[in-house]
Each structure stands twice: as structure tokens, then as C-alpha cells.
Amino acid sequence: MLMIEYRDLGWWYWLVTAVLLTLGVFGVSEAFLWAIALTLVQLIHFAMREGSVKAFPVQVRFWYLMLLLLALPQPLQLIFWIPTIGTWAQLTFGYCTMARLVSLFPWNREEIMSWQLIQRTFFSPPVRGNILQGLPPVTRV
Predict the structure, then answer these.
(1) Which long-range contacts (CB under 8 A, 24 or more apart) does 36-44 make?
(2) 10 Å Cβ neighbour count for 2?
């Protein structure tokens, strides 16, 4: 199912970032720097919009920025393929691996870490909004 959210400003940020990362992995090295700069702008914008650096959308953008910075040194630039593919998946299908990973951090969950939680987190279908709203309810035995 396609989830193209062209009316959402965040979607446009991600689209430009995905294009820049794609240019980067195909040889335009300075595009990586532009993607990092745009992600920083997006991080600041969302922190101001949400009113808190603790807000979930801000956390996702922070850790995304950390991944881009990790991949920046020349020997690690193959890592850029991960956010490139992931960002296109998020833009097209609404599946954001980074958001799902961030949702597992202790301060973002109420449930104890378990294989069932990990499975639900990564294998639940994409939802509009954020993954914290879309995870299936916890089943207690």
C-alpha cells in the first residue's frame, strides 16, 4: 500500500533528503553534506514545532542525523545505503525503520523489552502518524 503524504511538510523534507542521499551513493559526494545539513534544519524545525527535544519526531530525526554523521567518513560511506533505502521505503510505503527502532528505547515504551515486542515493532504494518500510535495492543497471558 502506498503512503505518499505530499501534503505533509515532513514528507517533503524526507523526499529532498532521499534525493540527496541517492545522488551521494551514486557518486556526488557533496550531496551527503547537503543531506546532513537538511536533516539538521529538519531537526531544528521539528524541535521548535513540537516544543521539545524529547518529542518522538525530534528523536527520530536526531538518530537519523547521527546515522548520517556516522556514515560520513570515507571508509564508512557504504553505510549511506541504509538511510537511502530506508528513506525511500518511508516515503513510498510509510515504513520507517528508524522510528521503529527509536520506539524501542526505554523512555519511549511502557512494555518490558521482549522478542514479542521487537517482532510487533518491526513487523506491524505501517500506519499514518507515528509508530507509537500504530503498534498493536499488548496481549497479556
Answers:
(1) 36/65, 36/68, 36/69, 36/72, 38/13, 39/64, 39/65, 39/68, 40/65, 41/13, 42/10, 42/13, 42/17
(2) 7
The total number of residues written for the chain in this structure: 141
How far apart are alpha carbons 139 and 141 in whole angstroms? 7
Domain boundaries, the chain: 9-134
Contacts of residue 13, Cβ cutoff 8 Å, sequence gap at least 6: 38, 41, 42, 45
Please spell the DSSP secondary structure of 108-131, one letter per residue: G-SSPP-HHHHHHHHHSPP-SS-H
E runs forming strands in the chain: none
pLDDT classification of 3: cutoffs 50, 70, 90: confident
Comparing C-alpha atoms, which of 108, 114, 83 is closest to residue 98? 83
Nearest by Cα to 105 from 69, 59, 68, 36:
59
Global pTM reads 0.88
Q: Which three cell numbers stand for residue 32?
A: 551527503
Burial class (CB in 10 A: 0-12, 13-18, 19+), 46: buried
